[in-house]
């Protein structure tokens, strides 16, 4: 019978641009081999979480211009502790035991990378949040 870790790894998406080789440092390797694939796999739920965040705050987001929307995303992802914790959970729930051990030893730096990946992912899909899609 497959273990939880084996099942998690079997559904993990490949990210061709996220290169990992012998010279890749630990945190960068973790980002490219673990965080980026999880981010890609969890894209729909990440979008949905932010969509719900927008509506919870009275759709202020939709009255902003493009530049301000990008800033709104950045401020939300970096400063709203409830949102940050939820996003961290979206990633951590897909860690293998070994990945969680690495996370535990490097939590501060990995959390920064999770937040930056999420910010970039949301900002690059700004069109998803246009009023007619919501």
What's the main sheet like? none
Radius of gyration from the alpha-carbon trace, in angstroms: 16 Å
Number of domains: 1
Mean pLDDT, nearest integer? Answer: 91
Distance between the terminal alpha carbons, to the nearest Å? 41 Å
Helix fraction bin: 55-70%
Total helical elements: 7
User: What global shape is seen?
Assistant: elongated
Summing up helix and strand content along with how strands pair, one would put the structural category as mainly alpha
Query: H/E order of the elements?
Result: HHHHHHH
According to DSSP, the number of beta strands is 0
Q: Which percent range describes the beta-strand content? A: under 5%
What are the low-pLDDT stretches, counting only 5+ consecutive residues below 50?
Answer: none
Characteristic terms for this protein:
mainly alpha, 134 residues
Describe the structure.
The model has no long low-confidence stretch (mean pLDDT 91). It contains 7 helices and no strands. The chain has one domain. It has helices at 4-11, 26-41, 43-56, 66-79, 81-92, 97-105, 107-124. The protein is elongated, with a radius of gyration of 16 Å. 18% of the residues are buried. It is mostly helical and 134 residues long. 68% of the residues lie in helices and 0% in strands.
